[in-house]
Amino acid sequence: MTIVRKFARPLLATSFIYNGVVRFRSPEGGRYLTPALDAAAKARPELRALKGKERLIAQSIAGTQIAAGSLFALGRFPRLSSTLLLATGAINTYIDYRAAPTSTKEEKEARLGQGLKNASLVGAVALSSVDTAGNPSLAWRASKFGSDVRKKSSQLGDDLKKKSENVLHH
After folding, report:
1. What percent of the chain is modeled with pLDDT above 70?
2. Which residues have CB under 8 Å from 75's CB, separation 6+?
3. 0.90 cut: is pTM over it?
């Protein structure tokens, strides 16, 4: 792991871990999930069971954020953990934006500033989710494996053909 990754991942993760702990302790912001859950229940009938469980869902999102942030800070499963942070961060950005007061000009400016900060964090973690740390991606590895199998199969077929010709001609 490069020195930049060694310091940048924990720095980026701290905000997500902290917000996850705060939201886990007081998941009242989950009430802002109601419109999204209603829409999901209309689209997929099997999701109707989620209606009325906004608090539980908010705590689940917070727990996921704490776990993913911790793994990301430690450099464990960085692409998976950053992808989870991307999803939970986007949801929390939406909740924060909806929950922010907007009765005065200052409150509106604070809401905008907080929204932009949250969007920036989501963008940073989105970049991290595609960072391969100098290692090939899973797609490249799968393609390389398929290519190697084809090459070995072709070589094996050619060898088998030569040996069978030798046996038949002798």
Report:
1. 95
2. 1, 5, 6, 9
3. no
